[in-house]
Structure formats: C-alpha cells, structure tokens
Amino acid sequence: MTPAPTRFPLLSAPLVSLRGVGKTFSNGTVALARLDLDVRPGELLSLLGPSGCGKSTALRILAGLGEATSGAVDWPGAAAGADHRGEIGFVFQEPTLMPWATVADNVWLPLRLKGVPRRAAMPRIEEALARVGLASFAASYPRELSGGMKMRVSIARALVTRPALLLMDEPFAALDEITRFNLNDDLVRLKNELGCTVVFVTHSVYESVYLSTRIVVMAARPGRVVAEIAVDEPPARDASFRRTAHYADLCRRASEELHGAMAPDAHL
Amino acid sequence: MTMSPSEAANPTAAPTPSRVIRLDRERLLGILLPVAVFLAAIAAWEALVRLNDIPPYVLPSPSRIGEALVRDWGVLSGSLLVTLKITVSALLAAIIGGVALAILFAQSRWIELSFFPFAVILQVTPIVAIAPLLLIYLEPNTAVLVCAFLVAFFPILSNTALGLASADHNLRNLFDLYGASRLKQLLYLRLPAALPFFLGGLRIGGGLALIGAIVAEIAAGTAGQGSGLAFRIVESGYRLNIPRMFAALVLISVAGILIFLIFTLLSHLLLRRWHESAAAREN
Hints:
CATH topology of the largest domain in chain B: MetI-like fold
Number of strands of chain B: 0
InterPro entries (chain A): AAA+_ATPase (IPR003593), ABC_transporter-like_ATP-bd (IPR003439), ABC_transporter-like_CS (IPR017871), ABC_transporter_ATP-bind (IPR050166), P-loop_NTPase (IPR027417)
Structural class of chain B: mainly alpha
Structural class of chain A: alpha/beta
Family (chain A): Belongs to the ABC transporter superfamily.
Strand content of chain A: 15-25%
Radius of gyration of chain B: 25 Å
Helix content of chain B: over 70%
Number of helices of chain A: 7
Radius of gyration of chain A: 18 Å
Keywords (chain A): ATP-binding, Nucleotide-binding, Transport
Number of strands of chain A: 9
CATH class of the largest domain in chain B: Mainly Alpha
Shape of chain B: flat
CATH architecture of the largest domain in chain B: Orthogonal Bundle
Number of domains of chain B: 2
Oligomer: heterodimer
Domain ABC transporter (chain A): 16-247
Order of helices and strands of chain B: HHHHHHHHHH
Largest sheet of chain A: 6 strands, mixed
Order of helices and strands of chain A: EEEHEEHHHEHEHEEH
Protein name (chain A): ABC transporter ATP-binding protein
Strand content of chain B: under 5%
Distance between the termini of chain B: 29 Å
Number of helices of chain B: 10
Helix content of chain A: 25-40%
CATH superfamily of the largest domain in chain B: MetI-like
Distance between the termini of chain A: 36 Å
Largest sheet of chain B: none
C-alpha cells in the first residue's frame, strides 16, 4: 500500500482513534460492538456499510456528539482533557442551514459562536464561499438555492474554521447523481488544497472508491468492522479515474466485501 | 469551480410580459370583487330599511349609523381610545409574559410540566365566567385589563413554546459541536426558529385581547367606571340609541381588523425573505 501524502509526513500516530468503542441505545439496540478505528492524518477515510451498521454513530462519537457506552476516543497528539470541538467540522446528510440567515451569515456561524465579529470574519467567510464556488451568493437566503448549492454552503460552513478533521455523514446521499459527481470532484480538490483529514460515511461503493485513500467496510447487528481496503491511487483524481480498470477492480472488491458484510442478513 | 446546469437555481426568472398583464388583472379583480360585494351588501341593507320603513330603534340604516358615527364622534372616539389602550397594554403584557414563560419552559421539561396545567386551566375557563370574580377583587379598569391579558396570553405562550422546541435537531447538534452556550443557542437558534410561530400567536392574541377587553367590559356593565366601546354599547342599549350602538360596534370591528392587518404586515415583513408561509411561490 502506498501511503497517501499528508500534511504531517513524519507523524505516524493516528490523529484520533476509537478504542473498543461500543454503543448501546436506551432501547437495547447494539449500534456498535467494540469498534477499533484509527484515523490517520491526511487520509480520506470512508466508512462504508449497510444501514444500521453504526457508521453514523461512530462518526458522531468521533465528533463528541454522542457518548460511547464503552471504550474511549483517543487524540494521541493532544494534551489530556483538551477540547477538540474547535478542530472538527461536521457536514450532515441534510444541508442543515438556518433558513432565516443569509448564506454569509450561515457560514459565519462557527466563527460567531467563537466570538468573532462579523466584520472580522468576513474575509474568511468570503474565502470559504469562494472555495465552494458560491462567492456571488453571499447575500442569498438558503431557500433561494438548489439542493447542491445548499450542500456547498454547508461544506463552506464546516471549512470556515479550517478544521484539522472534517466529518461527513452521507452528505451527498439525497442529491441527484450529476450534482453528486460534481461535489465528489470538489471534495477531492478541497481536501487536497486544505490538507485536512476527512472521515466520510457513505453507503455508496462507487463514491467511497472514488473519494477515499482508505475504505473501512462495516457490518450491522452488531456494528463492526469487517474489512479494510487501501485505495492505492494518487489522491488527486478526476473523472478519468472512473474509467480505469483499477477503479472497476476496487469497486468490485468493495462490493464483494459489502456483500459479505450483509450476508447474515440475507433473510431480511 | 464551475456550476453545473442542474445545480444552478433560478430565483429571479423574469416573467414574460403577457403574464405580467394577466397577473395585474387578476390582482385588480382580487381587490375590486370583494369591495364591490361589500358595497352591494351595504346598499341592500340601506334599501331594506328604507323600502320597509323600519324605524331606527329596530334596525338603523347604514347612513343613519354613519350619521351617528359623525355626530357622536366626540364620545365614541374617547371610548375607542380607552378600549385600544386596554387592548394594547394587555397585549404587551401578554407578549412579555408569554415569551418569558415560553423561554423558561424551553430551559427544562420539568418546569414546563409543572406550570403548563395552570396555563391550560386559564385558557379553557371562559373569560366571561372569570370576569365577575375579578371585578370583586380588582378595580374595574384593572379587571378588564387582566381579562384581556388572560385571553391573549395563552396563544402567545403556546405558540412560542412550540417554536422554541422546533429548532432543527441537527442545527442543535452543530451548536453543541461548536460549544455554544445556552444563551447563544437561545439567541442565534431557538428564538429565530420560534419567530414564525410567535407571529402566528401574536395574530391570534391580538384579536383575542380586543375580544377579552370587550367581554370584560360588558361583564362589568354599568357598574364599571370605564367608558370603553363595550360600555357605550351597553349604555346606548339602555337609552334605545340603536344607531350609536351600531356605530360603536363598527368601531370595534375596525379596531379588530386594524390589529389583524398590522400583525399580518409585520409577519410578512419579517418572514418574506426566508419563511415558506410568507415567501412568494415560484411556479
């Protein structure tokens, strides 16, 4: 496996890891059973699996949005007890914008919550919007935008704090395929420009192969890791990658692993 | 980055000229038609009274009512002012009380559970039945004010409470992720999310405050020292001055319509850029 070029080439320690993380919901459902997962600096890691495999739960625990029932979240490079919330950007499946605020004010939110006044935040807001191609829509309201554009605003909002770790929970699942392909290309470009680490939850084999440097395949009931696929392809990719035999081969492997992960549920 | 055609939204598509003309004609008709029907109804009333020689102490004609409105304007305008003052102060108190209590409810489910029964009891008990009691304990003017407050309070409280609770869950997660304090969450997320609900409650509460003031004044009857519009109606009834009774009624209706229009306009101005209820549909 060729390691992906990273912002921290000398650092071999993971950026963050889940150690034996389990999560049982109050209704008794075991969402995760002893999950071990390392997120390495600079990688784009896909969590691929069927619904109910706990991939979103794992992402939320990484973000600190949900408490693990057992196990721990480790940030090896950080001081004990440090607050990591400032270093994380999160993109939900829905754009999750505030409808009463303009695009610029929506992107301002993470900085505003840190106490940055609007005027001081403006250059960073404009930069984030320019990165997602929405520089001229700063004064628009979310309802005036298409689904893909709303998702771009959501991504700009997550990037405006320049997070070390970007967590994305099936962000493009509700979009049409053409929009989705465009956003996939944009995500690859943004990640390479910014050099951040991305954990990307998806149930699409093709999306995970196209985007990732590494794919972790998960299975449901209980949620666990069943396979890991290294995508040994340079991180700068474009649509031509989709036409290569290597891409087809990786998709086939990922599909097989996913199929294997779902086998016990064949009766469903 | 380039925008694909499928993504480009088209918020300001210019309508074709023929469509503009048709829309204008439709709008004009939408104003003219109700006005014409209303005027026709007034004319029919006038004709009914004149053709059948109905005496004004049974049913005054619209022209007689208009006459009374002009002749008694001194007395009536004073009463209108009293009623409006009570309505507006009651509504202000209801807004402050309702929003404050809704914010308190939003802080903890236990507070909400403990206090909500009181709010419901006050809401379901008819104000006409409470008014005589309040008149025993309070001065008539204060009692009328409290009655108007009580009816306007509940819709504002319950709507605002619903609005505060309806902020998007993932947005709340996002605020948690960025470590937002409760105060910031309230200011930047929950209050804006509650605004459309609050404005809906305000429109209902505004009308109800007027009704509450009128009902309480009627209950106070001649014992009241107030001289609001309801008092004028009761008084004119005793004196068989039916045209003035109708004139006072007209003023109450006009006041109610004005309150409704003001809040509808306010709602439109505050929500038109972002809320589905106020924004124009594009199709």
